Amino acid sequence: MDFSEFLLPDFLKDNIRALGWEKPTPIQYLCIKDALLGKDILGGSPTGSGKSGAFLIPLIARLFAKKSQGIGALILEPTRELALQVEAVLLKLLQGQSLLRAGTIIGGGSREVERDDPSDIICATPGRLGEYLKKGWISTDEVQVYVIDEADRMLDMGFKDEVNSITAALKKRSLTMLFSATLEGRGIRDFAEVSLHNPVEVRLTAGEETAEKMPENLSARAYYAAGEPQKIRILSHLLTTVPERAIVFVKQKEKVGKVESALRRLRFSCATLHGDLSMNERKAAIRNFTEGNKSILIATDVAARGLDLPQVGYVYNYDMPPNAAVYVHRAGRTARAGQKGVVVSLVMGNEMEFLTKLENYTKVPIEKRAIANVCAAFPSSSKEGGSLGKRVSRASTGGHGGFDKKHEDKDKARKIKLRLRDKKNKGKPDFAAKRAKKALRKQNAE
Ligand code: AMP
Question: Which residue among 242, 291, 377, 404 is least enclosed by CB atoms within 10 Å?
């Protein structure tokens, strides 16, 4: 199956070819076929599956065949980065024709452009679009094609009411497509009920709808870190020995700056992405990373959600993700569109059980590694069976005994201290025993 089998305008076929897309991905095949016939789509698709093309191609084809007098298509995205990213693909797919124009209505963007002369296809965030509608700046009366992308994320971000009122006003639409990483849960079902009419449900694999999927060509590794300084040592060692484009995930925006300055001191130059940046700073960070001026991007989950950044070889969990779904999402920033990728986790002592959970959830084994003179092997734990408990010999860490040795030494010191205390107290009354006896007597008397 290739794109020539769909009834698409020539310019669109040329642009698809220019993007290097030879064959439709499974989600594209399933969606394009039905959406071109005007059937609503409820799509559950993993990260990096080609979802944008799946809704943009039929959207453009339908609008090109029958242009609206006004805004003809509306694509809702949860964040401005995603809206810009989809607009960028859209602009590539629209090249070579002059009938349809595309634009964005997003927070931080210029208000004038779309207010004074709205484009035919709008990528918008619900908050800003809601403001435009309330103020009567634009009309969505003529919208024929409507896309709600990342619906689960919209719900997480509290956009339910905004999205529902935007949906309710689109009376003339003839095609609606709703996408979400998961199709389960009441919120998504409510969204689908309000917005879709007899939808075709598209899932890549039946029964695997609850989770995003790990990319296929992905290896997972973990290193044991005793604290923050060691995390930096491991990270800088790996960034030096495997100089591939990398995204480093940290848990809060405050941490982005800390890790960035620690790496800067070690002469790494990094782009950063977090919630406090202005629109222009974000754009500059993404451009610096995408165009290759900076090969390391330090980001929080919210800021990097859904971004399609090309040729990321490594994803580092500098801080472990809050749950397995976020781990999968982070991992999905690499190994995109069939390329190889590695996800590396820096794991602290209290996070080792979480690794087992991640392996069970993703079914992708995590290889535990040590680095000579940088970090020791994972300490073994009785709770960890099989591969997780596997211990690299101390010799292979090449250090001075590392974590294990340090703990053995501490244990020895504690025993010596106890023996000395016992010796010192010899012959003295045992107050603890006395107190216990007194409590027992009191209890018996009551
Ligand atoms: P998406 O899931 O839409 O963010 O797409 C993920 C990546 O897959 C992007 O880098 C796209 O350019 C790429 N892609 C989308 N469709 C195809 C295709 N049919 N063939 C090859 N790559 C594709």
Answer: 291
Q: Which residue range(s) make up the domain with 120?
A: 3-211
Query: How many helices and strands in the chain, by DSSP H and E?
Result: 19, 14
pLDDT in tens, 345-382: 999 988 988 999 899 888 899 999 999 989 988 887 54
299 with 270: CB under 8 angstroms? no
Distance 338 CA to ligand 1 centre (A): 9
In the sheet that holds 102-105, the strands lie side by side as 102-105, 121-124, 73-76, 145-148, 175-180, 41-44, 200-203
State whether 279 and 200 are in the same domain: no
Positive or negative, the CA dihedral 389, 390, 394, 399 is: negative
Q: How far apart are CA 376 and CA 371, in angstroms?
A: 7
**Ligand 1 binding site (Cβ under 6 Å of any ligand atom):** 21, 23-25, 28, 48-53, 308, 336-337
Q: What is the distance in A from the centroid of ligand 1 to the CA of 305? A: 16
Q: Are residues 15 and 111 in the same domain?
A: yes
What is the pTM (predicted TM-score) of this model?
Answer: 0.57
Instruction: Determine the distance separating the centroid of ligand 1 and the alpha carbon of 50, expressed in angstroms.
Output: 4
